[in-house]
Design brief:
Elements (H helix, E strand, L loop, with lengths): L4 H7 L6 H9 L6 E6 L8 H4 L3 E8 L8 H12 L7 E9 L5
Parallel strand pairs: 2-3
Antiparallel strand pairs: 1-2
Length: about 100
């Protein structure tokens, strides 16, 4: 019996927690810190929640954001998350900072 969650997820990706998948994809941005809060429980009954989409609040700090405006930073996050933004994630509030902005 496999006790390791990641080992189970490799066999059946659907068992991996969505938050873990989000963090894994955001690793492409080489973050110094990620604060990811699943706020889906606040949106029970909302159309996006009924369709299976989750609501997240993200604060991310990455040197890759240096010199970039907020729109570009958000696009970088969306690109890193890829197809998760099409179904699994219904709403994502993003606060993206370069390390020197803290």
């Amino acid at each position: 019996m496999l006790r390791d969650r990641e080992a189970r997820a490799r066999l059946r990706p659907e068992v991996m927690d969505l938050s873990a998948v989000v963090r894994e994809r955001l690793a492409a941005l080489e973050p110094q810190s990620i604060d990811l809060l699943d706020e889906s429980g606040k949106h029970v009954g909302h159309a996006g929640a009924k369709a299976g989409g989750n609501h997240f609040r993200l604060t991310i700090v990455s040197p890759r954001f240096s010199g970039k405006d907020q729109v570009t930073r958000h696009r970088m996050v969306y690109e890193a998350l890829g197809p998760l933004m099409q179904r699994e994630i219904h709403a994502l509030a993003i606060r993206a900072f370069a390390p020197d902005e803290l």
